[in-house]
Design brief:
Distance between the termini of chain B: 46 Å
Largest sheet of chain A: none
Order of helices and strands of chain A: HHHHHHHEHHHHHHH
Structural class of chain B: alpha+beta
Shape of chain A: globular
Largest sheet of chain B: 6 strands, antiparallel
Number of strands of chain A: 1
Strand content of chain B: 15-25%
Oligomer: heterodimer
Helix content of chain B: 10-25%
Shape of chain B: globular
Mean pLDDT of chain A: 86
Number of helices of chain B: 15
Low-confidence stretches of chain A: 1-15
Radius of gyration of chain A: 23 Å
Radius of gyration of chain B: 25 Å
Largest interface: A-B, 71 and 61 residues
Structural class of chain A: mainly alpha
C-alpha cells in the first residue's frame, strides 16, 4: 500500500505526511452505507469491494513472487528464496479461491460478477506491484495480522509497514484498517435477517457457482487418514510440516445465509489464522508471511538481492510528470511484451466472467462449454507466468550504460493493466465475439514483438502462442456458427 | 591394429509385423515449425535398399513421402538393421566394423558368422508346459542369403512351424562397407489348431492331441497372468462379461523375441562374439506420436539411476521436462477423456465401459466414481490445457506442477487427490494408476527447483553423447542406418500391463540370484535349478518378497503399497481399502520403479531381502502388508544380478531368455487391440480419432475401433455391432487397424505421410 500523489478521492497526498487515524477516517467514510442504498445494495457494494480487494492482493503477491530469483542468489540461499516464492504463490492462489468464493456469494444474492478494481477506497496505488522488500513484506504481515496477535517482531513490522506506507505514527497504537475488517462489516450485514431477508438468497444458484472440484486444481490438504472407527489417525511429523505450507484454495459454494457467513469466516481465518491455540494443519497467510519476514530480515546484511531489479508499478502508459514515471516501460521491445501480457490478462478475466455467465445453461454431469472456458482461464494463467518471466528478463529502458552488470540492469515487469471497463456484453453471442476481438488485438502484438529486435527464442514462443490462439479462434468460430451468428464473424 | 571386442548396435531392435513385400522406409518425426503444437511431421530418412539376389545394399534413397501400407491390406513391416562395432587397440571409441577396418586388422579375420535364436513362449507361459514354447534357431551362418526363422514346438503337428520372419547377413560392398544384419519380422499371421474356421490348413500347426492349449482355461491356473486370460477365447468374449469364462481357441501368433549374435573368428585367437536383442511386435499405428512413458525411459533409469546428475546443465533438464509434457499431450489427444474419466455416457452407466475408474471399482469392490469433475473432461479442452503447459515451458517458465505428479508409491491412492495426479486416467504396469519413472519425476522436480535462478537468453545444450564402450545411453539410443524411429525403444510403451512390443515386467523376475519372482507382483514362484538341497532360498518359493534393504545407503524399499480410498462419510478423510480377496489392502508395486534404487546402488552386490515367513499357499495368495516385527519375516542375503551384459546395453540373458520378453503379451496380440482399452497405451492404441470441435464447442470424433467413421463416437462396450470385434481382427487386422496421421485416419490406399 503506498501513497498516491494525486488522488481525486482525496485518500492520501504524498506531499504531506499522513497519520493512520486520518487514513482510517477516509476509509471508514468510503465504506459507510450511503443514504440512498438499501441494505441489499450496500451488501452487494461491499462484496464488490471484497472482490476488488482479493483481486488486488493476489496480483500484488503474484508480482512479488515473479520478482524473486536470478543468478545472483547464492547457491546456499536458493532453497530459502524458492520457499519465499512458493509462499507468495500459495497465498496468491488462495486469494484466487477467496475471489471465487466472493463471486459465489454474489451469485447467491442475485448479483453479478465483478472483477474491476474501481471500488477500492484505497486507490490502486495502495496495492503496489513491487519487488519483495522488507518494507513491502512488513505490509503483507501487517495487513493479515490478527488485531490481538502479539509476537516479537510486531513493533518492527509496524514500523517498517508504516514507513513503507508513508505514515508517520508508527509509534502510536493506532490500528490501520485491514482487509479482514471489511469482511467483518460484510458478515455483520449478512447475518442480520432484518437487513437481508431470507428471500434474498437464491439456493437454486448453487450449481451455477464455482466449485473447488473444478477450480481447486488439487490444492487442498491431504486427506486425513481415519482408523476403522472413523477417528483421525496421527500423521507423521513430516506430513504435519508439509501441511503447514501446502496451499489450500478454498472455494465454497453457498446455498444459505449460514453457509455464506461460514464461507466468509473461513476466508478471514485463512488470512489471519485462528484465535487462541494454534489450529492443526495449514498456516495462515499471516504466519507464513511472518516466517518469510524473519528469514528476509536475517539476510539484510548480506551483499546480494533476492529480487531482480524490476520497477514498482510497471506501466505501458507514459506519464513523465506523474508519480509513476519510474515504472514506465520505456523500451519498445519490453513494452510490446507488456502489451501482450495485459491483453492475455484481459483474456483470462473475460473467460472467467464468461464461465459465470454461461453457468445457468450448463449441466454439471457432462462436459460443457462452461468447463471448457474454465480450462481457458487456467491456460492463460500459465502464459501470464511465462510472460512475466520474459518481462523480468528484458530491460526496462534501452538507454542503459553497456558496462552495467547484468544483475543491475533495470528490468521490466508484468503490469497487470486492464481497460477500465471489462464487463461482459449481455448477449452470449457478443461474448464470443468479444473473445475474437481480443484475439485480434493479441495477434497485432505478435507483429509488434517480432518486428522489434526479437530474440531467437521469441520466434518459437510466439509461434506456440499463435498456434494456441488459432485453435481458440477455430473453436469460438464453430460455436458462433452453431449459434447461427454471422453478423460480426462468420466461418 | 587388433580388435579387443565387438558390439552390435542397436542393442535392442524392434521389428514390426506386416504382410507387404517391401519393408517400411526409414523415417523420423520432428516438430512442425508452422504448427508447433500440432502433430509432428513424418520425414523420410535415408533408406537402404537391399538387392534380393545378392544380399548387398544396392542404393540409398530418401523417400519424399513415407508410405506405411501397400494397397489397402498390406502393412509394410519394419525390418531393422543391426550393425557391428569394434573396440580396437587404437582408441576407446566404438568404430564401425566394416571392410576398411577388416582389411587393416592383423591378423585378418577368418570368418564372420551370425546366429539368431528367437522364441515365442506365450502359450508356455500360460499352460506352464515347456513343450508349448516355440523356438527358432538359424545356427551359425556366414552367407548372404535369407535365413528363415522357423519356429518349432514339441506340440506342433509334425513338420509344421510358425514363420517368425527371416534374417540376412547383408553383403558389404565398397559403397556400403559396414558389417550388418537385417531382421525382417513375420506377416502378423495367426496360427492355431486344425478345424478352426479362421485358421487355414497351412497354419494349422497346433496338435491338440499333444498339448492342452486348445480348450485351456487359466481360471484355475497356478500362475495366471495379469491381466488374466490374455488370449483368444471361444465366444462369448470378453471373459469378464461372461463370468470370467475364458476357454482358449488355441491361437498363436508370429511375434517373437530373442538374440542376434555375431562371431568373428581369428587365426590363433579366441573368436570375438557380440550379441543384441530383437523382438517383433505390432506396427506403430500412430507413427507421429510418442507415449508419455516409454521403454526408453525405463532403460534410461536402469542406466543412470532414479535421480538426475545434479550437474546436468539446466537446459538439458528443461528440455527433458518439456519433452515429457509434449508426450503427455500426444497421449491424451487420443483418449476420449469423458469416457476414460468414468462419466456416464448419454445415460449409460460407466460400469459398462472400460476405464480406470471401472477397473478400480471392480478391484476394490467400491462404487464407481469419475476421477475429475464430470463436466471438465472434454478431450479438446484437456488437450488445449496440456498444450498451454507445454507452450509455457517452451517459453521459459519453470514447471510449477511437480507436486501434482503421482509418486511411484502412490499408484494405489484412490482418493480424489491421488487419482487426479498426473499422468491421469491411465494404467501402469502394476494395473494401478500410471506413475512416471522416478527419473522422469526427478527431471521435472529439478527443472522446477532450478528454474528460478537461471540466466537470461538461450541456454547451452549438450552435444550428442559419444559412442563409447561404457556409454550405455549412446549405445541404447544409437540410430542404425536405415532404421526407422519405430524400431527403437522410445516407441515401445513401458507401462506394460502387459505391453505391446515387450512385457518389460518379465525382466525383473530373476533380479535376485537364486529365485524367480512373478512378473507382476512379489510372489516367489520358483528357484534357480542349481540350488543345493539345503539352500535356504528354496524355502522361499510361495512366499512374498516384502522389502529390500540396501547396505550402502541404508535405504529400505518396500515392494507394495497400501490401497487408499475416500472415507464414504467424510469426504476429507481416507481409509485403507480392503476386500475379501485383499484383506490387507495392499497393492504390489511395478518392478521398474520399485527396484530402481536397488539397481542403482547394488547391481552385482549383496542386499538383504525380507520375505514372508511360513505362509501357507492359501495365505500367500493374498498380498501381505509390511510388519516391523522381526518375527514376521525372514531375511535372506541375495546377490543382485547385473541388468546388462558386461560393457553392453544388452539386457542380460540371465534375466530373460529368448521368448521371455514377449511371453506375457496377448496370444495372439490382435486380441489385445480388441480387449485393451486406450488407457493402457493411448498413443499406441488410440481411442478417439478424427476429433474436432462441434458447433456446441465440445469435441466430436470417432472411436478408432468403430467400423464406420460417422463423427459420432461409439462407446466401447465390447459387444456393439458397430465396433470391430475379435474375429474381424483375427481375419483382417491389417485392414481394420488404420494408421493415424495427424490424429486422423490416414487415407486408404497407399497410406502416406
Amino acid at each position: 500500500m503506498q501513497n498516491s500523489a494525486a488522488d481525486p478521492a482525496g485518500v492520501v497526498d504524498a506531499a504531506k505526511p499522513v497519520v493512520a487515524s486520518e487514513v482510517n477516517r477516509l476509509i471508514d467514510s468510503a465504506l459507510a452505507r450511503r443514504r440512498d442504498m438499501s441494505w441489499h445494495d450496500y451488501l452487494i457494494d461491499l462484496l464488490h469491494l471484497g472482490s476488488a480487494l482479493e483481486h488486488a492482493l493476489l496480483v500484488q503477491y503474484l508480482y512479488a513472487a515473479y520478482t524473486l530469483g536470478g543468478q545472483q542468489v547464492p547457491a546456499d540461499r536458493r532453497d530459502m528464496v524458492r520457499g519465499w516464492q512458493e509462499t507468495l504463490l500459495s497465498v496468491a492462489r488462495e486469494e484466487m479461491g477467496h475471489l471465487l468464493t466472493v463471486q459465489n456469494v454474489l451469485t447467491l444474492l442475485g448479483a453479478g460478477l465483478t472483477l474491476t478494481k474501481e471500488r477500492l477506497p484505497w486507490k490502486i496505488q495502495w496495492f503496489n506491484l513491487e519487488p519483495l522488500t522488507l518494507g513491502s513484506l512488513a505490509c503483507y504481515v501487517f495487513a493479515e495480522m490478527p488485531e490481538s496477535e502479539d509476537f516479537p517482531e510486531k513493533s518492527e513490522v509496524r514500523k517498517l509497514a508504516f514507513a513503507h506506507l508513508g505514515l508517520t505514527d508508527a509509534g502510536t497504537d493506532t490500528p490501520l484498517r485491514t482487509v479482514g475488517e471489511v469482511y467483518s462489516i460484510i458478515m455483520d450485514v449478512l447475518r442480520d435477517p432484518a437487513k437481508i431477508p431470507d428471500t434474498a438468497f437464491n439456493e437454486d444458484s448453487y450449481l451455477m457457482q464455482a466449485s473447488w472440484d473444478d477450480w481447486g486444481r488439487g490444492y487442498k490438504p491431504d486427506p486425513r487418514p481415519l482408523d476403522p472407527d472413523g477417528n483421525v489417525e496421527k500423521i507423521s511429523e513430516r506430513a504435519e510440516v508439509a501441511a503447514q505450507f501446502r496451499p489450500y484454495v478454498m472455494i465454497d459454494r453457498v446455498a444459505t445465509r449460514t453457509q455464506a457467513v461460514q464461507a466468509l469466516e473461513r476466508l478471514s481465518i485463512q488470512g489471519e489464522g485462528m484465535q487462541g491455540p494454534e489450529a492443526e494443519g495449514e498456516w495462515s497467510h499471516f504466519k507464513r508471511f511472518k516466517k518469510v519476514f524473519i528469514e528476509l530480515q536475517g539476510i539484510q546484511h548480506e551483499p546480494w538481492q533476492p529480487t531482480l531489479p524490476v520497477p514498482t508499478n510497471p506501466t505501458t502508459v507514459p506519464n513523465p510528470h506523474g508519480s509513476n514515471a519510474a515504472g514506465y516501460i520505456a523500451s519498445d521491445r519490453a513494452r510490446n511484451w507488456a502489451d501482450l501480457f495485459n491483453l492475455r490478462y484481459r483474456m483470462l478475466l473475460t473467460f472467467l466472467m464468461h464461465t459465470f455467465q454461461v453457468a445457468p445453461l450448463a449441466r454439471a454431469d457432462e462436459p460443457n462449454v462452461r468447463a471448457m472456458l474454465m480450462h481457458k482461464v487456467f491456460g492463460e494463467m500459465y502464459q501470464l507466468k511465462t510472460l512475466a518471466g520474459i518481462l523480468t528478463q528484458l530491460p526496462l529502458r534501452d538507454d542503459v550504460d553497456p558496462g552495467t552488470p547484468d544483475h543491475e540492469v533495470p528490468r521490466a515487469g508484468p503490469p497487470f493493466e486492464l481497460p477500465a471497463n471489462i464487463r461482459l456484453p449481455p448477449r452470449d453471442v457478443d461474448c464470443w465475439c468479444l473473445h475474437l476481438d481480443i484475439l485480434g488485438s493479441v495477434a497485432r502484438t505478435y507483429e509488434a514483438i517480432l518486428g522489434c529486435d526479437p530474440r531467437p527464442e521469441d520466434f518459437a514462443y510466439v509461434a506456440l502462442l499463435r498456434n494456441l490462439d488459432a485453435q481458440t479462434k477455430d473453436w469460438v468460430e464453430r460455436i458462433l456458427s452453431g449459434l447461427g451468428a454471422t453478423m460480426r464473424y462468420s466461418k | 591394429m587388433t580388435l579387443r571386442s565387438l558390439k552390435i548396435l542397436p542393442p535392442f531392435a524392434i521389428g514390426r509385423l506386416g504382410s507387404a513385400s517391401q519393408p517400411l522406409d526409414n523415417y523420423s518425426i520432428d516438430d512442425n515449425p508452422d504448427q508447433p503444437l500440432g502433430f509432428r511431421r513424418i520425414r523420410g530418412e535415408p533408406t537402404l535398399i537391399v538387392d534380393e539376389a545378392s544380399g548387398a545394399i544396392r542404393e540409398q534413397r530418401t523417400p519424399e513421402h513415407v508410405s506405411f501400407k501397400e494397397g489397402d491390406a498390406h502393412i509394410r513391416p519394419v525390418a531393422p538393421f543391426l550393425e557391428v562395432f569394434a573396440v580396437t587397440d587404437a582408441g576407446d571409441s566404438l568404430v564401425p566394423l566394416d571392410l576398411g577396418l577388416l582389411r587393416r586388422l592383423d591378423p585378418a579375420p577368418l570368418k564372420i558368422e551370425w546366429r539368431v535364436s528367437v522364441a515365442n513362449r506365450k502359450v508356455a507361459r500360460r499352460t506352464g508346459d515347456e513343450q508349448d514354447a516355440v523356438h527358432a534357431d538359424t545356427g551359425w551362418f556366414s552367407d548372404h542369403g535369407s535365413h528363415s526363422l522357423k519356429g518349432h514346438s514339441e506340440h506342433f503337428v509334425a513338420g509344421t512351424c510358425i514363420d517368425f520372419g527371416h534374417v540376412r547377413f547383408i553383403a558389404p560392398n565398397d559403397a556400403f562397407p559396414g558389417i550388418r544384419l537385417r531382421f525382417t519380422p513375420a506377416r502378423g499371421l495367426i496360427y492355431g489348431p486344425a478345424g478352426d474356421p479362421l485358421i487355414p490348413p497351412e497354419r494349422a500347426v497346433y496338435d491338440a492331441a499333444k498339448g492342452k492349449w486348445l480348450g485351456f482355461s487359466d481360471a484355475d491356473a497356478e500362475n495366471q497372468t495379469v491381466p488374466p486370460s490374455l488370449y483368444a477365447i471361444k465366444p462369448p468374449a470378453p471373459s469378464w462379461l461372461h463370468h470370467n469364462k475364458a476357454i482358449s481357441r488355441g491361437y498363436l501368433d508370429d511375434t517373437c523375441d530373442g538374440f542376434v549374435e555375431v562371431r568373428l573368428t581369428r587365426d590363433g585367437d579366441q573368436p570375438l562374439i557380440a550379441r543384441a536383442r530383437i523382438c517383433a511386435g505390432p506396427p506403430a499405428l500412430v507413427p507421429d506420436s510418442l507415449f508419455v512413458r516409454s521403454l526408453a525411459d525405463d532403460l534410461e533409469q536402469v542406466i543412470h539411476g532414479p535421480t538426475l546428475d545434479p550437474d546436468e546443465p539446466y537446459a538439458v533438464t528443461r528440455d527433458r521436462a518439456t519433452d515429457i509434457v509434449r508426450r503427455a499431450y500426444e497421449t491424451v489427444r487420443f483418449m476420449n477423456v469423458t469416457v476414460m474419466n468414468g462419466n456416464n455416457i448419454k445415460g449409460r452407466s460407466a460400469l459398462l465401459l472400460d476405464s480406470m475408474p471401472e477397473e478400480e471399482a471392480a478391484d476394490t469392490q467400491r462404487a464407481i466414481r469419475p476421477i475429475m469433475s464430470a463436466q471438465a473432461v472434454d478431450t479438446l479442452a484437456i488437450l488445449a490445457l496440456h498444450e498451454h503447459v507445454y507452450a509455457a515451458l517452451r517459453g521459459g517458465a519453470a514447471p510449477w506442477f511437480k507436486d501434482l505428479l503421482r509418486q511411484p508409491d502412490e499408484v494405489a491412492d484412490f482418493t480424489d487427490r491421488g487419482r487426479r495426479k498426473m499422468p491421469a486416467l491411465m494404467c501402469g504396469a502394476d494395473n494401478n494408476y500410471l506413475a512416471l519413472t522416478h527419473r522422469q519425476i526427478d527431471t521435472i522436480r529439478k527443472a522446477a527447483d532450478q528454474g528460478l535462478f537461471q540466466p537470461t537468453g538461450l541456454l547451452d545444450r549438450n552435444e550428442p553423447e559419444a559412442l563409447r564402450p561404457r556409454n550405455l545411453t549412446a549405445q541404447m539410443s544409437y540410430k542404425a542406418a536405415g532404421n526407422p524411429l519405430s524400431s527403437r525403444p522410445e516407441t515401445s510403451v513401458a507401462n506394460c500391463c502387459p505391453g505391446l512390443e515387450v512385457d518389460f515386467r518379465a525382466v525383473w523376475r530373476r533380479m535376485f540370484k537364486g529365485i524367480v519372482l512373478r512378473e507382476y507382483d512379489n510372489r516367489v514362484v520358483d528357484h534357480d535349478p542349481d540350488l543345493t538341497a539345503s539352500d535356504p532360498r528354496r524355502a522361499l518359493v510361495g512366499q512374498r518378497l516384502l522389502r529390500v534393504r540396501l547396505p550402502d545407503s541404508g535405504r529400505a524399499v518396500l515392494m507394495m503399497t497400501g490401497i487408499k480410498g475416500p472415507a464414504a462419510s467424510d469426504p476429507d478423510g481416507e481409509i485403507m481399502l480392503s476386500t475379501q480377496f485383499n484383506p490387507h489392502g495392499q497393492a504390489a508395486l511395478e518392478w521398474s520403479n520399485a527396484l530402481a534404487h536397488v539397481l542403482n546402488e547394488s547391481q552385482g552386490k549383496t542386499v538383504i531381502c525380507d520375505f514372508t515367513k511360513n505362509l501357507t499357499p492359501q495365505e500367500a495368495e493374498v498380498q501381505q502388508r509390511w510388519n516391523d516385527d522381526p518375527d514376521s519375516y525372514v531375511s535372506v542375503e541375495f546377490e543382485v544380478r547385473r541388468f546388462f551384459e558386461d560393457d553392453t546395453a544388452v539386457i542380460s540373458q540371465a534375466l530373460a531368455d529368448a521368448g521371455e520378453l514377449t511371453q506375457g503379451l496377448c496370444s495372439p496380440w490382435q486380441n489385445d487391440y480388441r480387449e485393451c482399452s486406450c488407457y493402457y497405451w493411448a498413443s499406441a492404441r488410440p481411442d478417439y480419432i478424427n476429433v474436432e470441435p462441434a458447433g456446441t464447442g465440445l469435441s466430436q470424433g470417432d472411436n478408432w475401433l468403430q467400423k464406420e467413421r460417422t463423427g459420432n463416437y461409439v462407446p466401447d462396450d465390447y459387444v456393439d455391432s458397430r465396433l470391430i470385434l475379435y474375429d474381424d481382427l483375427f481375419a483382417e487386422w491389417e485392414r481394420w487397424l488404420r494408421f493415424q496421421i495427424g490424429g486422423r485416419d490416414a487415407p486408404e490406399g497407399s497410406t502416406s505421410a
